[in-house]
């Protein structure tokens, strides 16, 4: 597998598929934690939404991928069910159709299904910003997102007493990549979070043995896009063949409803 620019990945092959990894745009919790000194345990940051700067970042990213042609080649979008990730997903892949996003967003001809999955959410536990609202509540605000692969209406994964171990986050990431490989789509976008995406790439490098430059293993900036190509040989590595994680974050199947 190699990391490369989005312009380079246009061919479809049974021996590889392309994943476009996007960290959510700036959330209000990023401002509170990094600029205002708010404690991460603050309930005010519960399931944080995007900041005005974050909305602007989404607009800029959408325009960039429209210009590159990438927006018309993605077949499926997987999003974390946390609010900031879903807002980023809708803003980039639906644009002007999202009522809370500026009408200045550029238009696209392709509208891939957007599916929410627990397995790609941020490191869980302790911090309310990483605890999601109920699915029944979010369905009202995000009618374009398919929530059928999330089994619990309330957030049954987030624990207020302990923070998920980084090793467990990495294991989730490997299991997620394995699941993505088994899907029929050849080009998939994933909108997730800084820790999850970084731990996933580090695990692919350190545990699976894929050589990656140090610069590719750094923390994602808000709304940053990195495109990776996974090869058939990567998916045959022993670490991935035996990879598993807790059943409660495992997608129940490779089937889901697609929006018309």
UniProtKB/TrEMBL annotation:
<dbReference type="Pfam" id="PF00300">
    <property type="entry name" value="His_Phos_1"/>
</dbReference>
<dbReference type="GO" id="GO:0016791">
    <property type="term" value="F:phosphatase activity"/>
</dbReference>
<dbReference type="InterPro" id="IPR013078">
    <property type="entry name" value="His_Pase_superF_clade-1"/>
</dbReference>
<comment type="similarity">
    <text>Belongs to the phosphoglycerate mutase family.</text>
</comment>
<dbReference type="InterPro" id="IPR050275">
    <property type="entry name" value="PGM_Phosphatase"/>
</dbReference>
<dbReference type="GO" id="GO:0005737">
    <property type="term" value="C:cytoplasm"/>
</dbReference>
<protein>
    <submittedName>
        <fullName>Histidine phosphatase superfamily clade-1</fullName>
    </submittedName>
</protein>
<dbReference type="InterPro" id="IPR029033">
    <property type="entry name" value="His_PPase_superfam"/>
</dbReference>
């Amino acid at each position: 597998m190699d990391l490369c620019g989005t312009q380079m990945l246009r061919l479809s092959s049974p021996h590889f598929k392309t994943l476009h990894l996007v960290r959510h745009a700036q959330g209000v919790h990023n401002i509170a934690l990094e600029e205002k000194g708010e404690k991460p345990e603050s309930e005010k940051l519960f399931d944080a939404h995007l900041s005005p700067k974050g909305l602007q970042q989404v607009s800029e990213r959408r325009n960039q991928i429209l210009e590159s042609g990438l927006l018309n080649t993605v077949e499926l979008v997987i999003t974390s069910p946390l609010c900031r990730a879903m807002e980023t997903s809708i803003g980039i892949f639906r644009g002007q159709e999202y009522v809370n996003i500026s009408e200045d967003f550029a238009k696209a001809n392709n509208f891939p299904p957007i599916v929410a999955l627990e397995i790609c959410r941020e490191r869980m536990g302790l911090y309310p910003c990483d605890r999601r609202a109920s699915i029944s509540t979010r369905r009202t605000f995000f009618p374009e997102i398919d929530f059928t692969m999330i089994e619990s209406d309330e957030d049954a994964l987030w624990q207020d007493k302990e923070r998920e171990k980084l090793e467990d986050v990495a294991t989730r990431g490997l299991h997620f990549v394995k699941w993505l490989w088994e899907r029929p789509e050849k080009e998939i976008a994933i909108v997730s979070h800084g820790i999850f995406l970084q731990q996933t790439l580090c695990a692919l490098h350190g545990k699976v043995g894929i050589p990656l430059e140090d610069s590719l293993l750094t923390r994602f900036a808000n709304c940053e896009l990195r495109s990776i190509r996974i090869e058939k040989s990567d998916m045959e590595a022993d670490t991935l063949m035996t990879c598993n994680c807790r059943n409660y974050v495992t997608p129940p199947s490779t089937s889901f409803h697609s929006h018309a």
